[in-house]
Amino acid sequence: MKLLLTTLLVIFNLTVFAQSNAFAGDYNRNFSKEGDHLIEYKLNLRQDGTFVFHSYSKIKNGFPPEVNKYGKGKWTAKDNVITFSSNKQEDFDEKYTLDFNNSRARFVTKNPRDKSDRIIKTKLTFIRSEIPWMQRLDVFKT
């Protein structure tokens, strides 16, 4: 009985760990107009449950012309929704100023049961955020 219980516990833990592997990785999104504007978003979800976000914009005739914004904190996944959080004491300083508290993103990927030829890129779609320009933003897994 102990062996059976131990085996089930190990299988359960491996399953939970395998699910977080699907979410972890680098996500990117670029918007550009030749010679005029460039906006880049980079999100790194790490295996240890932490994340780093970088937003870069270079807009011709903008003020200021180049802007870098950073954010970091922790992430958790439940079903296909990733919840972000930032600790005021640990995750904020002069460089990391974006507040990801109350931000959520949906993990979108092709269902393994879908045998069609259609291509669905793996992505995160921000469904909720107190950062206004993050609403409905898609970042694609690389």
Automatic annotation (TrEMBL):
Residues 1-18 form the signal peptide. Keywords: Signal. This is NlpE N-terminal domain-containing protein.
